[in-house]
């Protein structure tokens, strides 16, 4: 890798060496995408009236059990219904689990889709791909994350990147497959900006926001122009495709690194402690708060990973025994943290007048088995699960679709992964008939042929 500014190094929380902020790889992921947006707008592929719309995708790594959260079956046999009781909600149309009491209070602001499914394998990685891109990676083709597509078609609208992942990209899921959180065939310049830090820590700072200590402002100013750096670094590099990519990307990275607005958006210390505590002084809660600040700062798409891996961490992956999570761990640790952070985010967006232009999409890679296993947990089940949406034009308080009496398969209005992703694009004003520049430059459809948004959410 070509290092453009020096030898400074930083360490991630998992001990791996990070690239300096203005190395080639980082520059490439922060492209402006402005020509793409102008072309898309002129071709009528994006709705200019929705240019202010944004999305926060909360990806519930590990996959919550639909039968223990949003699609309870109180009349089913004990091995199906599980240990929790349903409670009434502000919706009046549906009940949810007693382990999510804060959700119940704001259920008039979000709507459930209880009939989601996908045809990928029952492994985490496959579900991550399906639910974040709308497709399963096959034939060596990596498809772009929904946020990367928004970045390509809309571009950035401030000094901040168009797509940010909090707190960092997903770790391993057991299948050693791509996780779907990248630019895919659109190229690395459309990879998201990953925070790579825990915003709940007292010493929280963004590793890539400020230049390494070894680099003074004068040195940065001297190297602002890409041509000068290339000439000092690598002979004959200027005419290469990489250099042409970096020419626009360097200015983009420089804007973010030196922007007071960008630093302000990431500065959680500017929030009153009462607000921070309302979200929860934990990693997920503070990521939700940071997502709100980033949307206010101009970021178009924020992806929040509730967890980073399904191994040796308390997550939604409730198989019931170690190294996975028990049903008690979900009840006592996962659900309260998640309930607090999500409800605070929705209420805050509503109070600030942001909810109508900000879609909050809560997804997961699949659901859990209809029957409780011998360890007291539930296993992987892509055949039927629940997703839910708030804001961004979604009408709250609805339950769309239905599962069978055991929560095993869709009984009404099945909704595939491609329809879930199409729903996100629709909320953001993208024409679902748009074509992207696919592998080898061939036109590639934005969504699968025939896939459309879940229209019942919006009407």
Automatic annotation (TrEMBL):
Coiled-coil ranges (or none): none
InterPro entries in the record: Alkaline_phosphatase_core_sf, DUF1501
Family matches, as Pfam families: DUF1501
Domain of life: Bacteria
PANTHER family: BLL7424 PROTEIN, DUF1501 DOMAIN-CONTAINING PROTEIN
Protein name per its UniProtKB record: Sulfatase
Organism field: Rosistilla ulvae
